[in-house]
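User: I'll paste a sequence; please echo it back and then give the predicted structure.

Assistant: Echoing your sequence first, then the prediction.
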Amino acid sequence: MITPSFNYGQFLQAALNSASVPGCAVEHIVMDAESTDGTPELLAASAQSVIWRSEPDSGQSDALNKALKLSSGDVIGWLNADDFYLPAALPLVMKHFEEDPALDVLYGDTVLVDAEGRILRLLKAYRAPGKVIEWRGPVFLSTATFYRRKVLGVDPFDVRMKMLMDWDIFLTLVKNDALKFKYLPIPLAAFRMHELQVTHNRSGYRSPEHSLLRQKHRIDERLVPLTRRLGVALHRANKLARGAWLPELLVAHRLQGRSLLNSAGRVDATTAKDLMKTVRQASLQRLLSTVQGGRTT
């Protein structure tokens, strides 16, 4: 697990806790950019086994590259300092990579939570997003994505990217037809939405960094007004066709406002269990609806 960090000490303990799972061989590396909020002291006193450095860097991409160089694992997870994994995620991820040596990239769904860890909504992904990532943007989040180390190479994160390094790496990987992707239709991680985060403050699709991204991946700037609309439409159609809306609606209806974290900064077992139960019920309802619709036809 590689974690870039800068003045996110108020969130970091939950990330450390979630990456420390009994029975899982996890090497967690935190690259801190000389935080002044007590982060180095927290890391030094941490009960979890964590490798960490606190030194200057040129941004999140630089920190990720530095952490990757310090790592030795065959499978890489990028966990932001303000995010956290759900309890069953890491054992499940390890199982899939161990059982399939050809697997290169594994991703799942993400729960969006607020600064205190209260559930806002479920963000469902889907298989084979294709052109949607190029036209609209990521359909799965970095915190719920895991990579075979060899596909990342050396310094995979472009240090020119301050906000869009996730979109950049996803575009690079999905365009490689030789790579094997796998989608797990269950929530693997929680992504916090709060005012301090970089991604929360992204500015439209016309920023200089968006232009840099399109130049790098040879996306015609002139077609963006059209391709953006096409990407959004295709994304919605994919979610509808693959039954993604129902679990999102059920989670919002039943669990919105429930905290995924307890006072100790650990995932609340009851809420996590209810979350998984709700997702399974939605999947079962869709399956029954499909079968009944087929019989009617």
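The radius of gyration is 19 Å. The chain is about 40% helix and 15% strand.
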